[in-house]
Amino acid sequence: MLHTALEWVSHGQVAHYMSLHRQEGDISELTTYFDTVVDWVSATFADVYREMCGLEWGRLYETYHQQPYAADEVAQRVAALMADESIRQKSGIFEYVLGGEQVPSLLNIRVFEDRTKRSAYTRQTQQAKAAGHSNCPYCVQEGKANRDRIWDLKEMDADHVTAWSRGGATDIANCQMLCKTHNRMKGNR
Ligand SMILES: [Zn+2]
């Protein structure tokens, strides 16, 4: 099943490979190559997911096949990430895990919904006004010119208090509004 799925969706790469090896006229070499890729995918990922379809397995094989992976750890991580509601692009999980979970942008992590942002904004702003300081906690911490500034909702962005990659959920409990400057600074850390 995996073999079929990969061959079926990899036809672009097959064509490329065939154009490179046309002179040799050796179709069995192509077959062998794809068997190698498929064997590697099977050995690396114990389970087959429909999200595997359409991925550039040739490229992933070339990039990662020399690295050692513990199949049970990989299976566990993939299963856990598949169940994570914050991940919008499940097909990115395989490359994310192969690469040592360094590039969350492969996963298109869910952003906070507008109503969540509004709730967080209202809560923070009420507390800030009562306490007489800015509704951006980082402006308060910094203690400079904006220490007492109440930002408008449109001047702020939502931030994961605990980063998603450290287990933080995309929900109201883990949402804080920061002024755009501080949100950018935190994002670049
Ligand atoms: Zn700020």
Summary keywords:
two-stranded antiparallel ribbon, binds zinc ion, mainly alpha, 9 helices, 189 residues, elongated
What is the element layout, followed by pairings?
Blueprint: H1 2-9, H2 11-20, H3 27-44, H4 57-64, H5 71-82, H6 93-98, H7 114-131, H8 137-142, E1 156-160, E2 175-179, H9 180-187
Describe this structure in words.
This protein has 189 residues and is mainly α. The chain folds into two domains: 2-107, no CATH class; 114-187, no CATH class. It is 50% helix and 5% strand. The chain has nine helices and two strands; from the N terminus they run H-H-H-H-H-H-H-H-E-E-H. The protein has helices at 2-9, 11-20, 27-44, 57-64, 71-82, 93-98, 114-131, 137-142, 180-187, and strands at 156-160, 175-179. Strands 1-2 form a two-stranded antiparallel ribbon. The protein starts with a helix and ends with a helix. The protein binds zinc ion (ZN). The site of zinc ion (ZN) has 7 residues, from helix 8, strand 2 and helix 9.
Helix and strand sequence: HHHHHHHHEEH
Overall pLDDT confidence: 87
| Number of beta-strand segments | 2
How large is the share of residues in beta strands?
A: 5-15%
Number of helices: 9
Domains (count): 2
Structural class: mainly alpha
Please give the largest β-sheet.
2 strands, antiparallel
From the spread of the alpha carbons, the general shape counts as elongated
**Roughly how much helix do the residues carry, as a percent range?**
40-55%
Q: Give the names of the bound compounds.
A: zinc ion
Low-confidence segments, given as residue ranges, are none
